[in-house]
Design brief:
Length: 583
């Protein structure tokens, strides 16, 4: 774990904070081991003759030492804990900003749940190592060495060595049994959550189960689960008992050696009574650091696995990259598509074939086609979420592959079919494409998208939380929020509506389209409107009819309408006759 650049870079950056923490903890431990010594001296004073003044003196010494210890130890502990939190935040940010760079396909291969589990499990595990791990190893190392130094120099080194032998087995026990306990409790947890899933499923389908007389089978399934939980829990109890018995056993043996051997040394006056008492206190101070050594080994093993997983995630390279020296976005961009053919990596048939057309700057293209015709694929190519071949798509005469993706994102406003809402205030839902959200722009965009009145009637207006954790909007309202979100990007030179008015009633749709038309004329926005409702495409300049990824028809609405037998005129007649309200 300590060789991975994520960690080494962090240590380098915060090296002085770490040095301070090490020094603080080190000195605090040196102070801490003075305590048994002071008690030993006090006991020796009892034999030499004690006065109240002397007792006060020792009490004063103890107080000063304890305060010094607490302050320094606290400082070290706090610093290490704080740095670990900084590291954790830094890791999370790295992961998120890395994911932002990857394209949509990556998230089709890795489910969002999987990715989040790394943020929720692996990142905290690494933080634990950086906080608990480092602070325990510091404490353990300093306390162990300082205690040994005291017992060897001030008491007796043979006594120290002899009593220490059984204690040295403590880290071995912790490293051997600790991970087994962890694994076993995870198994118990898993069995428990399987049982609760099963209970939920059974109870939810209780009517079905009863109507099919399936109770005995259900009960049997449940019993099998509870048996499993019992078996796994018993294994856990066994492991815990063994662990909790072994540590006191080893400590006990160590104390027995200390009492027998140390007692003899005291009787033969090789060490003083105070030294003997102090030694037993020192011995008890060694148990914790030795357990900590074992713990730390376990923590570091876990976190090194987590850290490797995080590093693997960070190594995923975006397949679509920016050109070495991107060209700047043309100010009045036309869109030219030149014999564009595109096939998804794992499919056999191209999703688009030989598409050639030009959308002059400031004009509007309508696209019609059945589901699966390739409409959304064309949008993804224009947004460079998918990579077209060189020479296939030009924006303002510049190959789309020569533009930076950030520039493209800033200048192309895309409204997907499913108006997605984030669980935050509706105003921010509209304003977030802007770096500094301007309330006037947000209101203006909401007005153009015909959602302003709806928002003003919400309990807290623009501050109303929407989405999963807030109030639920209808499909049409969601779509209108999504349109407002696109309109707030006033720098956008290209606007793409991917069937994004399908859930809006046709009256509102016409009114939104009229507002867009006005905007188009003012800003010279190049627009693409994909729609199943041909009435939405009444005012477009050209229409492309896509069929199976190919250009079935292309021309002005008037041209296409006069082409009898064509798909467009067929659909047009169905829609105008099938429902007068659509017209
Ligand atoms: N990520 C993908 N991987 C493979 N094939 C895809 C992917 N997305 C869409 N397709 C296929 O490409 C074709 C066009 O899809 P799409 O562009 O979504 O059509 P539309 O938007 O016109 O309904 C369909 O055959 C679809 O199955
Ligand atoms: Mg689509």
């Amino acid at each position: 774990m300590w060789k991975q650049p994520l960690v080494t870079d962090f240590f380098k950056k915060y090296r002085w904070d770490y040095v301070m923490a090490v020094v603080a903890v080190g000195i605090s431990k040196i102070i801490q081991v003075q305590i048994p010594n002071i008690i030993g001296n006090l006991i020796n004073q009892f034999r030499l003759g004690i006065t109240v003044r002397l007792i006060q003196h020792y009490a004063g010494e103890l107080a000063v030492v304890s305060i010094g210890y607490v302050l320094l130890f606290g400082l070290g502990q706090f610093t290490v804990g704080k740095l670990a939190r900084i590291f954790e935040a830094h890791l999370r940010q790295r992961l998120f900003s890395h994911w932002e760079l990857l394209e949509v396909q990556y998230f089709q291969k890795h489910t969002v749940g999987d990715l989040l589990s790394h943020v929720l499990n692996d990142v905290p595990t690494v933080r634990q190592a950086m906080a608990g791990g480092i602070s325990q190893i510091l404490q353990a190392a300093f306390l162990f060495l300082a205690t040994l130094a005291m017992t060897v120099t001030k008491i007796n080194w043979i006594l120290t060595a002899a009593s220490l032998i059984p204690l040295l087995l403590i880290p071995v026990v912790v490293v051997r049994i600790g991970p087994k306990i962890r694994r076993q409790s995870r198994l118990v947890q898993e069995a428990l959550s399987e049982m609760s899933d099963l209970a939920e499923e059974s109870l939810q389908s209780i009517r079905l189960i009863k109507s099919t007389a399936n109770e005995p089978i259900e009960t049997q399934r449940f019993t099998r689960k509870t048996d499993l939980i019992y078996d796994r829990s018993m294994d856990l109890v066994r492991l815990n008992t063994t662990f909790q018995a072994l540590i006191p056993l080893l400590t006990g043996i160590s104390f027995a050696i200390a009492l027998v051997f140390g007692g003899e040394l005291t009787l033969t006056h090789k060490i003083s009574l105070g030294a003997f008492v102090a030694f037993t206190v020192y011995l008890s101070m060694l148990v914790r650091p030795l357990m900590q050594f074992g713990n730390v080994i376990n923590i570091f093993q876990n976190s090194s696995a987590s850290l490797s997983r995080i590093e693997t995630l960070l190594k995923a390279k975006p397949q679509i990259t920016d050109p070495a020296s991107p060209q700047s976005m043309p100010s009045f961009p036309s869109v030219t598509i030149q014999d564009l053919t595109f096939k998804y990596p794992h499919s056999t048939k191209p999703a688009l074939q030989h598409i050639t057309l030009k959308i002059p700057a400031g004009s509007t293209l309508g696209i019609v086609g059945h589901t699966g015709a390739g409409k959304t694929t064309l949008c993804s190519l224009l947004l460079r979420e998918l990579d077209p071949d060189p020479g296939a798509i030009f924006i303002g005469g510049v190959d789309i592959r020569d533009l930076s993706r950030a520039d493209l994102r800033d200048h192309v406003a895309y409204v997907p079919q499913e108006g997605f809402l984030f669980s935050f205030p509706v105003g921010d839902n509209i304003g977030f494409p802007l770096t500094d959200s301007n309330p006037a722009l947000v209101t203006e965009a909401a007005h153009k998208a015909r959602i302003l009145t709806t928002i003003q009637n919400m309990p807290r207006g623009f501050a109303t939380i929407v989405g999963e954790r807030g109030i639920n909007l209808s499909g049409g309202q969601r779509q209108r929020v999504a349109i407002a979100r696109a309109l707030v990007k006033i720098d956008a030179k290209i606007l793409i509506l991917d069937d994004s008015l399908s859930a809006v009633d046709s009256g509102t749709e016409s009114s939104i389209l009229a507002a867009l038309q006005e905007l188009r004329q003012k800003n010279q926005t190049t627009t693409i409107i994909i729609s199943h409702r041909l009435s939405s495409l009444r005012d477009v300049d050209h229409i492309l009819v896509l069929e199976d990824g190919m250009m079935a028809e292309y021309g002005t609405p008037k041209d296409l309408l006069s082409r009898l037998g064509g798909l467009y005129s067929h659909l047009y007649h169905i829609q105008t006759q099938g429902g007068a309200h659509l017209g």
